[in-house]
Design a protein that fits this description.
The protein is of the alpha+beta class and 862 residues long. The chain is built from 28 helices and 23 strands. Helix content is 51%, strand content 16%. α5 packs across α16 and α14 runs parallel beside α24. It is elongated, with a radius of gyration of 38 Å. About 1% of the residues have low confidence.
Length: 862
């Protein structure tokens, strides 16, 4: 006979009204009453009495819920989960420490890169219409340059109505000091025209809007406080600006308001420009190039305006070097992303570098998250019996998920906190190191930090769902047997994460090796292997050249000396932008002596060097190979050109091309005149190159300093090794490369932590097999092969994925260098060998611990 049952609807209502414990007691009593009523009154009346009893019990619900004590067993209450999670983290502190370390490293690197990238994207946002501010550049023979003929800018403003304002500009790095003070510092001084103030929205708070006289300057509020105590006190004071050891006294005529912190340009000192009108004639013999900025009408098509420039200039000249040049306007954003056209005035970061750091930041975050999932999965596997017992005690899926998520919340919170502290501690150091300030308002920084913390915490919780769901849905019998998470699906997920980690790490290692190879190529391009013992002394040598030469040549530590107007490295004292009708475009002019080529390790490719006997003439000159293509007619060797003095200059030799500046730019056409023409180009001999012949360079430099101060007692002794000087040209590349190397190291470390997690998982799942194999006499190599076969498969697959991607992206990066190395197969072989070594060390450490386990202990537990 079928057993009578109460109405199901009211049974469900009863279960919703009371907790599990209370519900069990009440339901038992009500079922007993229902059975008695059924035998006594029949089925219908028994069901009615049951429903009435349930309705009467509703009045006890509020009191029941007030008096319900928080369960100390397996209920899904937050305080219990929090308490239990803290105990669990303490118990498994080694694994959780690895989790916290990998997350902290990943979050810190990502946050620092994210702040840097965000800062670059919000530069100049304070400008009312930044798109209308443009610089005029030229493209000649496929190469973009920043200098244009000094007469062009104002002719364009005159004839093109869409141009509202224009300012020519010259930026110079000068020594700044207060008059009479011995302390000085370097600062960029801008020589501009009045429209510059309106173009770049620079406001004046005191004094003149723009310097009215050549002997006056404007300084910013920040500079006024640095030099004096306040802006008011700075007004009318005198400062000294020194360039090439030539001091110039200037009076402060006005104080400008400090630019916002997110400004990409700096205007600390502003002065009047030189006499541009002297060389403004487009048909003149001498060409002088300057930078120029324009303010265009809103909505003006800058491409169309640039195309109109040659036609506009036809009314003023017929010179093909001006009319056949391609002109283009560049916005501030375009200039910020291309250091080649940054005018030494606008703070710039190469667009490719920015993209690389975006990718690196994102993939480091992916590494940290993937590693966290792997380690969390391995850790949960060690607790399968614990979770199985909780299942037996009545823990629901919701209970288990809430506990695991609470643990993840605590681990993520600790990681984010440590990451925040590291970011705050490291940010000033990194800003100083890379020379770029993260220009954000304080309030914006706080909001950005809050949003970042919340985002990272949400990311941790989301990535914790996989291990939480995986174990909360496993059958109880599987838990108690210790076989959780051994399904093909879970193995594929973990292997996929490991492939991703290895692929990213190999990509970064290839990138680091490529950077080092390009660095070696740079050293070869600058002949640094021949310049190891060459030092450079800077000063105003003037007519004392023979005296200092005599003193230095008497020192046994000195092998050779050379006087010149320039030395490879940062922009120097060469005459830039010189040109005559005999040449297609302007070229650089340098003053050297007969020892210069020898001391620099350069060779003559055609003709000969300067004669060192009576055959030498002061009008003899040398040109580099790039100058050959710059000659309008014929070959330059043996030709004469009218430059300086009454006698035409005659080319006697062709010097091999060598980079004066960065190899990111093409080698410019150049002419080398002899030091004996210094009377025609006064004050041009500023550099003294000295090749040492000693194993004690410090002692030799002291003797050189003593000789220098004897001849030039009023000039400070400034010396540096030439390789240090050339390194200044690549400061950004070196710093970015070192940071990239640091991030690569972090990525490798995180990958190794992930590898530890995967090996831990593999060892845990194969402990019984390891024990049996050890009993049967398996060797260490056999067990290692058993445990690592999957690791090597993962590494091989990761290499197949990452190597083509590495080649594509790194090839694109190398295109930013005009002269560059090649990505060869040896880079990938080195990367694979390096990563195999790292993985091998990590694997050996883990497997050594596994094979030391006593088989009897493992089999007894099984």
């Amino acid at each position: 006979m079928k057993q009578p049952t109460p109405p199901r609807l009211f049974q469900k209502l009863l279960s919703k009204m009371f907790s599990n414990t209370t519900m069990e007691e009440l339901e038992g009593d009500l079922l007993d009453d229902f059975q008695r009523n059924h035998h006594k009154y029949g089925s219908l009346r028994a069901k009615i009495y049951f429903m009435l009893d349930v309705v009467r019990l509703t009045r006890l619900v509020p009191r029941s819920r007030r008096n319900t004590q928080k369960s100390k067993t397996m209920n899904n209450l937050f305080l219990f989960n929090l308490k239990y999670s803290l105990r669990s983290i303490k118990k498994h502190r080694v694994y959780q420490s690895l989790n916290i370390a990998s997350l902290t490293l990943g979050f810190t690197c990502f946050s620092l890169i994210y702040l840097f990238v965000y800062d670059q994207h919000q530069k100049d946002s304070f400008l009312s219409n930044p798109e209308s501010i443009v610089g005029l550049n030229v493209i000649h023979e496929g190469k973009e340059g920043i200098g244009i003929h000094t007469g062009i800018p104002h002719l364009l403003k005159k004839d093109i109505p869409e141009i509202e304002k224009v300012s020519r500009m010259n930026s110079m790095i000068m020594e700044v000091s207060t008059t009479g003070s011995q302390e000085s510092f370097t600062e960029s001084v801008l020589y501009v025209e009045p429209d510059f103030m309106d173009i770049f929205q620079i406001e004046t708070v005191l004094g003149e809007r723009f310097p009215k006289e050549a002997g006056t300057v404007l300084i910013s509020e920040e500079m006024a406080i640095k030099l004096f105590t306040s802006a008011e006190e700075a007004m009318g004071q005198e400062i000294t600006l020194t360039f090439n050891n030539k001091p110039s006294k200037k009076h402060i005529a006005g104080i400008t308001r400090n630019l916002p912190v997110n400004s990409s340009y700096s205007a600390q000192i502003i002065g009047q420009p030189g006499n541009y009108q002297k060389h403004s004639d487009l048909n003149g013999m001498v060409t002088v190039s300057v930078a120029a900025f324009f303010k265009l009408m809103e909505g003006a098509d800058r491409t169309e305006l640039a195309n109109r420039i040659p036609e506009t200039l036809k009314a003023y000249t017929d010179r093909t070097s001006i009319l056949n040049t391609e002109y283009l306007f560049r916005t501030l954003e375009e200039i910020r992303k291309n250091p080649q056209i940054a005018h030494n005035f606008i703070q710039s970061v190469d667009a490719q570098t920015l993209l690389i750091f975006k990718i690196v930041g994102f993939i480091i975050l992916l590494l940290a998250i993937g590693n966290y999932v792997n380690l969390s999965t391995a850790l949960t596997l060690k607790r399968t019996q614990e979770v199985g017992i909780k299942h037996v005690m009545g823990a629901s899926r919701k209970n288990l998920m809430s506990q695991l998520l609470t643990e993840s919340f605590i681990v993520g919170g600790i990681s984010v906190l440590f990451s925040l502290l590291l970011v705050l501690a490291l940010l000033p150091t990194i800003e100083t190191y890379i020379g770029l300030e993260i220009g954000m308002e304080l309030q914006s920084r706080y909001w950005l930090i809050i949003i970042s913390i919340l985002s990272l915490m949400a990311l941790v919780i989301l990535t914790s769902l996989y291990p939480a769901i995986l174990f909360s849905t496993t059958k109880m019998s599987t838990f108690l047997k210790g076989k959780a998470s051994n399904s093909p699906k879970s193995r594929r997920v973990r292997s996929s994460l490991m492939v991703l980690q290895f692929a990213i790490s190999t990509f970064l290692i290839v990138g680091s090796f490529t950077f080092l190879k390009q660095l070696r190529f740079i050293n070869r391009s600058h002949n640094l292997n021949k310049l190891e013992n060459v030092i450079i002394v800077k000063g105003d040598i003037g007519n004392e050249k023979s005296i200092i030469a005599q003193k230095l040549n008497s020192l046994p530590e000195i092998d050779l000396i050379s006087f010149s107007s320039f030395i490879p490295g940062p922009a120097d004292n060469g005459v830039r932008g010189l040109g005559t009708r005999d040449f297609k475009s302007s070229f650089d002019l340098y003053i050297i002596d007969t020892q210069f080529l020898e001391i620099m390790g350069l060779r003559i490719t055609e003709g000969q060097d300067f004669f060192r006997d009576d055959r030498n003439k002061t009008h003899h000159v040398l040109v580099n190979q790039a100058m050959i293509e710059n000659i309008k007619e014929g070959h330059p060797l043996g030709q004469e050109y009218k430059l300086y003095g009454e006698v035409p200059s005659q080319v006697v030799g062709i010097v091999e091309d060598f980079p004066v500046g960065s190899i990111k730019s093409e080698i410019e056409p150049a002419m080398y005149m002899q030091a004996e023409v210094n009377e025609q180009l006064p004050n041009t001999i500023k550099k003294l190159a000295i090749r040492l012949n000693t194993n004690n360079p410090s002692e030799a430099i002291k003797k050189i300093e003593s000789a220098w101060l004897e001849v030039f007692p009023d000039q400070p002794f400034e010396a540096e090794f030439i390789d240090d000087r050339i390194a200044k040209v690549y400061t950004d590349e070196l710093k970015m490369g070192q940071l990239f190397g640091i991030f690569t190291g972090v990525a490798i470390l995180i990958s190794c932590l992930g590898l530890v997690g995967l090996l831990t998982y593999l060892i845990q799942t194969k402990m019984k097999e390891i024990g049996i194999r050890k009993v049967l006499g398996a060797s260490f190599s056999t067990l290692a092969r058993l445990l690592t076969l999957n690791i090597w498969k993962v590494l091989a697959l990761a290499s197949i994925i990452s190597f083509p991607l590495s080649y594509y992206f790194l090839e694109d990066w190398l295109t930013s260098f005009v002269y560059r190395t090649e990505i060869s197969a040896e880079l990938f072989v080195m990367t694979l060998a390096f990563f195999v070594l790292i993985v091998g060390i990590t694997v050996f450490w883990q497997i050594r611990n596994a094979v030391r386990v006593n088989p009897s202990e493992v089999l007894r537990n099984e």
